[in-house]
Structures are given as C-alpha cells and as structure tokens.
Amino acid sequence: MKQAGFYGWEQATVPARTEEYPGISTPRDLYHRLMEGGWCMETCAPRLRGKWSETNKTCGQCSITAFLAQDIFGGEVYGILRPDGNYHCYNVVDSHIFDLTSEQFGGEILDYRDNPPQERAVHFAKEEKRLRYELLKERLRNYCTR
Q1: Mean pLDDT for the chain overall
Q2: pLDDT tens-digit profile of 50-74?
C-alpha cells in the first residue's frame, strides 16, 4: 500500500461511485492524482496563494477538493472552524474520515469531531470558488485520461 500524507489515509479505502476519472478507485488514488496533476496555484484560494508552493500543493485547496471527493465517493463534507472564521473542509464517507488537504497545516493537529456539515451551494455561491472547482475537475479529468 502506497502511503499518503493526509489525515485518515489508512482508512481512505471507500470505493469510487463513478468511473468518470479512470484510475481513481479510492481516496488514496485521488490524492496521488491531485498531487501529480491536479492541484496548482490557480486552484488555490486567492487569499492563500502567497503560501502555495510545489512543496505545499494542498494549501488553499480544501473545499474544492472535498466537494470533488464527494462527487467521486459520496458521503458528506464537514468543516473545522479556523481562527480566521473560515472552515477547513474534509470528507466522511461510510464512517471513514479523510482530509486530502490536511498537509497544509504541517504538524498542527485538527479536531475532526463534531463539526458542522458544509453545503456545496453556500461554498459555490462565491463565483471564484466555483470556477476553481471546475478547473480542478478539468485538470483531474485531463490527467486521468491522458
């Protein structure tokens, strides 16, 4: 089993519910594909682009990644309230908790208990976020089908 650096990687074994992205069978596969050909500065939240780098690809990618993972694996998206008032999003599928973008916090330990569900419509009411999500989907699709 290829180890990944995200929270919950050991239990990120839920099967994909769509074949839209060839080669992605589990959240682990999704993580590796996003690392290789998905996440980029343009998909990073504008307010965090100064922190984004090739060595910190998960920075500013949480909500768009969590909703993309929901598209592929189902389940729910939850959010951890951060000190700046924003929510950091992660996934729960069939009691499997995984956070594909947790590496952006370095050694900080996040609390994945009792957090509120996040609604796609609320997040994507921001046009720039919806466009980043669409770009991430397109980049992933292109990477998976080449």
Answers
A1: 95
A2: 999 999 999 999 999 999 999 999 9
- Whether 29 and 136 have beta carbons less than 8 Å apart is answered as no
Phi, psi of 49 (to 5 degrees): -60, -25
Q: How far apart are alpha carbons 16 and 23 in whole angstroms?
A: 10
| 89 DSSP β-pair partners | 79
pTM for this predicted structure: 0.95
20-45 tens-digit pLDDT: 999 999 999 999 999 999 999 999 99
Per this entry, what is the length of the chain?
Answer: 146
Give the tokens for residue 127.
């046009």
Per-residue pLDDT band at 3 (split at 50, 70, 90): low
